[in-house]
Structures are given as structure tokens and as C-alpha cells.
From TrEMBL:
The keyword Oxidoreductase applies. It holds the Pfam family 2OG-FeII_Oxy. Its cofactor is Fe cation. Belongs to the iron/ascorbate-dependent oxidoreductase family. It comes from Triticum aestivum (Wheat). InterPro entries: DIOX_N, IPNS-like_FE2OG_OXY, IPNS-like_sf, Oxoglu/Fe-dep_dioxygenase_dom. PANTHER family: GENOME ASSEMBLY, CHROMOSOME: II, OXIDOREDUCTASE, 2OG-FE II OXYGENASE FAMILY PROTEIN. The keyword ATP-binding does not apply. Residues 211-311 form the Fe2OG dioxygenase domain. One of its GO terms (molecular function) is dioxygenase activity. It comes from the Eukaryota. Keywords: Iron, Metal-binding, Oxidoreductase. This is Fe2OG dioxygenase domain-containing protein.
Length: 363
């Protein structure tokens, strides 16, 4: 299609109408990245010098063993990681390996099924905000400047769990169990983060930071021209906290000290990152950091991101601002208060486009 006849909106609607997402394109035998997925030159990152001086180890996010037996040391490690990196990995987390493996296998199996008439994919394909369970290609397909090379199964698991029949047959029991495991781990992490802020362990839970829970089960098909596309555009997460399980393919990067840092997959570990709302209520005590996922051509990539935040409930009337106990004459509030539901509406309205949502609320 010539530049003069290209109509992006038409192309986006055509992709949406297939109900088959990016995987449908790959299955159809596409050998070139369609224009709607091509990262514009002005948005492309300049090549980085990946060579390291001899004897210099590349930067890596902290790895914290939650079961090390030294509680004070764990709290201190979480504090440093949340302040300096906004990302860290956890081992000794208590989530059974069988639950992690089963969840990844179930997500992969769902995404790799055909999406014909009568299938779970066709039944679930939707962009309706109120739906607790849905499947789609890019939640922000019509907002973001470039479509991402991924498909997603979306599950809103709390505060009101979906009906069991709403979930795909192939992964219903497995993902309910996985969500339960994530809720338990999230409670532990919120206690540690509360203590890291100098607050009582229950503080973040008491103000509802752990009440909303969403699973985003992502599938990144192999990309025929990965240098022209992006798996997930650079962004920061909008909620309080994210727990990510990724497979061995890799591709996740975080932006640290003006460069992109690879998050190398660690078997058995979860990746934890601070969200915008936790940065806001901690008054910049903790960092919500931009990250992205590169497109790959070696194999499909699967990940499950568990997001916590009452803002996930569109009817929430809870107001969030910098925690009063953290403020003083020397630590004045940096953000205005916001209705939780207003924040998420703003976040979703702009799509994934760097770290811009939180700046709207800065004083």
C-alpha cells in the first residue's frame, strides 16, 4: 500500500476484526511486519554500545531471598531496591514451582489454540472495559502510536472474582490457583514495602493497595523483523505493584541511568516492580521505572503479569495522595490527591507511551 493510500485506522480495525491477534498474522505466514506495528523512526532507540570493559559486569537488578531468615536484612534490601531500581527479583517466595509451571503452560496453550468460530478466543475477544475476562491484541490499539507485537488474555480476579465459566476451559482451575498464590505473595511484599517506608506492616494493605488484582497473560509470537517492531512499548505501570513471571526467552528491559538494562530470566524467580501509584503515595520514596519488551524472532515469549491496585476497580471512590505519615516540613507533598478511578481512566486514555501518566498529578 502506498504512503498516500495508507489508512492506519482501517488497518487497525481490520486486525481487530480477525479476532486472531498477532499470532493469527504469524500463523497466516506473514514475512514482513505490517505497517501498524512498525516503530516510527523518531521513536526508535539509537543503537547502544553493548560492549563492556574487561572485568566490568553489566548492571543487574537486585535479587532478594525472602526466605533467608534475616527479616531486617530483607526489609533493608527491599528498601534499597525500591528506592534505587524500582525493580527487583525474589527467590524463596513460597510459590510452588508446579503452580508457576502450570500457569505458564496453560497460558501458552490458550494462546496457541485456533481462534475460529465457537472457540474461547472468539467468545472472549473484547475491548469492553467492564468485562472481567477478555482476550485481545493490544489494550491500547487505537491510542498508542505503534501497535505492539503481542496478544493478551486479561483476567480481573479481585475485588470481585469472575464466574468460573467466564475463564477459558483450558486454564480455569490453574489460573484461579495462580491468582491465589499471587495474592499471598503480594500480601507479603506489601508488608515488606510498608516496613521499608518506616510504617507498620499492614499500612499499605490497610489503605487498599492490595485489593484490586489483574492477571495479564501475554503472548509474544516470533516476529519476522524484530528490529522494526516492539513487544511492549516503553512505559511505567499504573498501579501499586507488579509481580511478573517470564519464560526463558527474555526481552524485558528497564531504563536505568539513561540506558536500557536487560532483565535476564532467572529460573524460579519473580520480577517485582513498583507502579506509579506506589511512587505517588510514597512521595517519590519508591521509584516506578520505565520498561519495555523487545520483539524476538527465536520463539514465542510467554509472561504473566499480576497487577495490584484498587484503581483497577472503575467504581472505586478511594482517594490517594502522598501518605501523611511520610510528610514533614522537609518532605512536602510532591503530588496532588487523585480519585483512584480517575487515575486509571487517565492512564488508559493515553496508552503505553513512556512514563507520562504520573506527571499529570505532580504539583
Amino acid at each position: 500500500m502506498s504512503a498516500t493510500s495508507y489508512d492506519r485506522a482501517v488497518e487497525l480495525r481490520a486486525l481487530d476484526a480477525t479476532y486472531a491477534g498477532v499470532r493469527g498474522l504469524v500463523v497466516s505466514g506473514v514475512t514482513h511486519v505490517p505497517r501498524i506495528f512498525r516503530v516510527p523512526e523518531q521513536h526508535q532507540e539509537p543503537p547502544q554500545d553493548t560492549t563492556e570493559p574487561i572485568g566490568h559486569e553489566p548492571a543487574a537488578i537486585p535479587i532478594i531471598d525472602l526466605a533467608c531468615g534475616d527479616h531486617a536484612a530483607v526489609v533493608a534490601a527491599v528498601r534499597r531496591a525500591a528506592e534505587e531500581w524500582g525493580f527487583f527479583e525474589v527467590m524463596g517466595h513460597g510459590v510452588p514451582e508446579v503452580a508457576m509451571t502450570a500457569a505458564m503452560d496453560a497460558v501458552r496453550a490458550f494462546h496457541e489454540t485456533d481462534g475460529g468460530e465457537g472457540s474461547d478466543k472468539a467468545r472472549l475477544y473484547s475491548r469492553e472495559p467492564a468485562r472481567a475476562v477478555k482476550y485481545h491484541c493490544n489494550f491500547d490499539l487505537y491510542q498508542s502510536p505503534v501497535a505492539n507485537w503481542r496478544d493478551t488474555l486479561y483476567l480481573r480476579m479481585a475485588p470481585t472474582p469472575p464466574d468460573a465459566d467466564d475463564l477459558p476451559d483450558s486454564c480455569r482451575d490453574v489460573l484461579f490457583e495462580y491468582a491465589h498464590q499471587m495474592k499471598n505473595l503480594g500480601n507479603t511484599l506489601f508488608e515488606l514495602l510498608s516496613e521499608a517506608l518506616g510504617l507498620k506492616p499492614s499500612h499499605l494493605a490497610d489503605i487498599g493497595c492490595n485489593q484490586g488484582q489483574v492477571l495479564l497473560c501475554h503472548y509474544y509470537p516470533p516476529c519476522p523483523q524484530p528490529e522494526l517492531a516492539i513487544g511492549t512499548s516503553r512505559h511505567s505501570d499504573g498501579g501499586f505493584l507488579t509481580i511478573l513471571l517470564q519464560d526463558k526467552i527474555g526481552g524485558l528491559q528497564i531504563f536505568n541511568e539513561e540506558q536500557w538494562v536487560d532483565i535476564t530470566p532467572t529460573p524460579g524467580a519473580f520480577i517485582i516492580n513498583i507502579g506509579d501509584l506506589l511512587q505517588l503515595i510514597s512521595n517519590d520514596g519508591f521509584r516506578s521505572v520505565e520498561h519495555r519488551v523487545l520483539a524476538k524472532n527465536i520463539a514465542p515469549r510467554v509472561s504473566i503479569a499480576n497487577f495490584f491496585g484498587t484503581h483497577i476497580d472503575p467504581t472505586s471512590m478511594r482517594i490517594y495522595g502522598p501518605i501523611k505519615e511520610l510528610l514533614s516540613d522537609k518532605n512536602l507533598p510532591l503530588y496532588r490527591e487523585t480519585l483512584a478511578s480517575d487515575y486509571i481512566k487517565h492512564y488508559y486514555s493515553i496508552g503505553l507511551d513512556a512514563k507520562t501518566a504520573i506527571s499529570h498529578y505532580r504539583l
